[in-house]
Amino acid sequence: MVTANTENDFAARSGSVLRWSMVLLFLVSFFNYMDRYMLAVLLPSIKEELSLSDAQLGIISGFAFTLFYATLGVPIARLADHFSRRNIISIALAVWSVMTAICGLAQNFVQLALARVLVGVGEAGATPPSHSLIADYYPVARRGKGIAIYSLGAPVGILVGFIAGSWLAENYSWRIALFVVGVPGLLLALLVWRFLFEAPRGASEQASSADKARVSFREASSILLRSRSFVMFSVGTGLYTVVWLGAVQWLPSYFTRSFDMSLTQVGFWLALVLGFSQIFGMLASGWVTDSLVTRSVRFYALIPAIAIGVSIPIFAAVFMTKNPWLGLALLFPTFMISVMQGPATFAGIQGLVPPSMRAMAAAVLLLITNLIGGGLGPPLVGLVSDRLTEQYGDEGLRLSLLVIACGFSALSAIVYLIGSFYVKKEFRSAT
To answer: Within 10 Å of residue 372's Cβ, how many Cβ atoms?
Structure first.
């Protein structure tokens, strides 16, 4: 297989080559999320062996990773807007795969935190160039499905990561688990470098020369800051990410602590619930988004607002029930509905900017959302849990998750609703 860099070649190769490229991008996303979130199910074992507090676990699973993941995403995206996105993705994948394996060698809090920082450095190069490629693979009417296929890597990665991680940790060790999931990423990095199709920028829309022209960092920043809908998308996603990352990282600890379930049991059931609920939610979001935005591009913001709003009372019930099986069952509709915000959001922002700065738009969105969500979510849950545990014992984590999940979800839904009033005016070729 060879790659092409002309628009004529793109038109000729828009069948099997694009399907194969989407398979590769899905696998990139899968390894990205498996390597990242397997740590959640390993936290109880890490806490016991390294004698860490909940606050320290929150820093390792949140801030230590997110700080560099978010901030380095922007300069890497600038490179992706100017140079080969395929090469950037393959290098990034190799870096985070090696560092995931090295996490298993950590002997204390500082070493593990530093290794997680370097995992974040590598993973910063995955999503922005991937989203930029997908926007060039598919026109607006099909872009939601393309983003949804890539986004499926998150739930599938969590499903496999939770099951494999809990089994490996209980039967071998958390160190072996990190090594086992890290090494195969190197092979995928080679496949991406060799076979991923580098589409011409703007090919899906026959973009003008002006739209394809390079935009300076200052100009690009100005375009994004002037876009009220982009700001609302970013803040809304950030507030929801506080909920998503806070919950996903702490759910294994919650079920083992509040219900005395075994790590293998928790890993298995959470993998099934979180994995399949989000698979259905992502697929539904791609189909619903592409169907509704042909009527009005306001649905890029309305779909997240409605989905997150509907999920709030179900989320509350998850952390109020005293029955672990009912809690697990309620997690399914909660995540299936709420994750519908993701594909709609990322597909929407690709239409707010010219093709020459799409990777940067995705990176800035990730920067804002991860600084808010990743930097605040897991540590905030841990800090609040530590305080509440002094008074409520093992129920402190339950109460922390209840308050943070419902409160931040409500704020996110409101911000998205406000953003829906600006999207149509600012969207390029809006309907």
So the answer is: 22
Residues with Cβ within 8 Å of 147's Cβ and at least 6 positions away in sequence, in order, are 131, 134, 286, 342, 343, 346, 347, 350
> 98, 182 in Cβ contact below 8 A?
yes
Question: Model confidence over 339-393: pLDDT tens digits?
Answer: 888 888 988 888 888 877 878 888 888 788 877 876 778 788 888 888 888 888 8
The total of other beta-carbon atoms located within 10 Å of residue 135's CB is: 30
- Which spans in 198-262 are helix H? 209-212, 217-226, 228-259
Q: Name the fold adopted by 7-199+216-426.
A: Growth Hormone; Chain: A; (1.20.1250)
pLDDT in tens, 137-195: 887 777 888 888 888 888 888 788 878 888 888 888 889 999 888 889 999 999 999 88
Q: Where are the domains of the chain?
A: 7-199+216-426
CA distance 322 to 336: 22
Amino acid at 238: G
pLDDT digits (tens, 9 = 90+) for 382-431: 888 888 888 888 788 889 999 999 999 999 999 999 999 988 888 865 44
Pair 167, 154: CB distance under 8 Å: no
Q: Which residue has the tokens 């807007």?
A: 81
Closest CA to 305 of 272, 341, 273, 357: 341
